[in-house]
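Entry 14: structure prediction run for FAD-binding protein. Input pasted below.
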Amino acid sequence: MTPSSEAELAEAIRAARGPLAVGGGFTRGMANEGEPLSTAGLSGIELYEPGALTLVVRAGTPVAEVERVLSEAGQRLAFEPMDLRPLLGTTGEPTIGGVIATNASGPRRVQVGAARDVLLGMRFVDGTGTAVSNGGRVMKNVTGLDLARLLAGSHGTLGVITEVALKVLPAPEATLTLTFGGHDPAKAVACMSAALGSPFEVTGAAHDAEAGVTRLRLEGFATAVAVRGERLAKLLKVWGAAETSEGHGPWAAIRDVTEFADRPGDVWRLSVRPSEMAEALHLAGGAQRLDWGGGRAWVLVPEGTDLRGRLGRFGPRAVLVRATSDTRAALGTFPPEAQAVTMLSARLRERFDPRGLFNPGLMEARAA
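Run finished. Output tokens:
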């Protein structure tokens, strides 16, 4: 099903007699149970006010279209939505609703926050076929339950997003990358932490554990970026001499983990405190890439590896991103939750999707 309006979507949900596999462009590679329900027909920009840094867009609008429109006005989606098609080997067109539903955020999260942090408001249809509006079109303090941020990252299990209002930001005039060699994960995290704790406004901090390379990104006005780069390199000289390069550099590849795209094996995403990341990676093994200053790691391991089992106390922080259907069935995509969180999640799903229509089982962990 591909409804072309919110009213058609609401009617389709009310008429549904079984599970619905909710998605936008279905580029995430998750085999959801049920009849496909795509929001791709809900496309188009409803409102764009560059002076107010505000964009209201229908959920099925391709991310590429949104970025093109913003670029023409010298603006951007600051949270850097990921495109995992190369890594996952999928096709289709990523949509803005899919990005928000999965809270897909790139390296700039360390400075501007995740996708949910730029949400001003949202419209969605719940499991009863009722259209719900939450938030607004300007940034403001929110009282009560912030449904927009609740649905961000819910992977379509609480409702079908039809429209989002976002805060956008100006695009930078210049980009500079500082590259350090000879780092192990512990040294890399120390270097990245020092950079992120500095006053020099680092917008990306990543590490390639195989190559021992750490990269830091600065963005802004050309003159200011050059000065900040010199001062940051001086501050971090204890971690080695930095090579500098201008331009966009490798950050799109870092964002999309494209170095693992053509390599066999399963890919996991691990989220732990930077101060504990080196210990977690020692347990994980495999090929490793760090982002978010060491708060996120991508780990490539042989097919069928139970990485959660290897990780011990860090196991509940590992999400299976790429794997065969058999491995996903055996290990589950998402890790087990604490009992209190499981109960809260169940109550939320019961409230917003009482018939259990939306992506059933997608976020449920497998029994250990």
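Notes: The chain has three domains: 6-170, 174-256, 258-331. Will compare against the previous run tomorrow.
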